[in-house]
Amino acid sequence: MSGHSKWHNIQGRKNAQDAKRGKIFQKLSREIYMAAKNGGPDPSGNPNLRMIMDKAHANNMPKNNIQRAIKKAEGNSEEHYDEITYEGYAPGGIAVFVEALTDNKNRTASDVRVAFTRNGGSLGATGSVSYMFDRKGYIVIDRSTTDADEDQVLLDVMDAGGDDLQTSDDAYEVYTDPKEFTQVRDALKKDGYKIADAELVMVPQNTTPVPADKKEQFQHLVDALEDNDDVQNVYTAAADED
Q1: 106-142, pLDDT tens digit by residue?
Q2: DSSP per residue over the chain, as a string?
Q3: How large is the average pLDDT for residues 185-207?
Q4: Do 134 and 177 form a contact (C-beta atoms < 8 A)?
């Protein structure tokens, strides 16, 4: 794994999205609803629901909002969302992988295509960039919440079944096989670590720097995609900046 801090970038995005908190809660509610609808309302028996609830807590989503989405799934709501992915290239030839939950595939496809074309990118066919990414479990331990040194954390991560540990000034970032994600997260919690973030993500196998003259256009594309109500996650192969 490359030695950069994904967590640093996530924190930067979260800070920038404070004003959009209502939209973030809406997206999380949609994920919670579908997870509860598909796997049951009890997080202890539904690992996917539990993961999304943890993600909601990390984003300071009120408990009432979480319970409302679960109750809705338990009821007779006919609401349904399809999981769809889109693949394409941003300015500078940077690979982009988009995950969406939508109740109207045509609307979402049109909106995503417009976001790409208006911001110097191009939407590709299914499979055009997905092979450049790997699905990984991603767990973050805030360094300020533990007295353990890097050697101890690495030992605990390996004992828990984790694949890789990256260390930055503010966080320990753990990557796992998706199948081992829940086991590793729970083992680290049992070891006394406070988990700052835990989710399944798409990790680029290689990264590419965004050309200086394309950076603004690139960011506009990412912002346009993330602002879309149907888009849940946007992953890129852009090299992280310090």
Answers
A1: 999 999 999 999 999 999 999 999 999 999 999 999 9
A2: --SS-HHHHHHHHHHHTGGGHHHHHHHHHHHHHHHHHHH-S-GGG-HHHHHHHHHHHHTT--HHHHHHHHHHHHTT-----EEEEEEEEETTTEEEEEEEEES-HHHHHHHHHHHHHHTT-EEE-TTSSGGGEEEEEEEEEEGGG----HHHHHHHHHHHT-SEEEE-SSEEEEEE-GGGHHHHHHHHHHTTPPEEEEEEEEEESS-BPPPGGGHHHHHHHHHHHHHSTTEEEEEE-BPPP-
A3: 93
A4: no
Mean pLDDT of 43-50: 92
Using alpha carbons, list the distances in angstroms from residue 211 to 103, 142, 207, 219, 239: 36, 31, 13, 12, 10
Residue 119 CB contacts under 8 Å (≥ 6 apart), including other chains? 90, 91, 217, 218, 220, 221, 224
Do 119 and 224 form a contact (C-beta atoms < 8 A)? yes
d(CA 60, CA 25): 9
- Rounded CA gap, 109 and 213, in Å? 28
What pTM was estimated for this model as a whole? 0.86
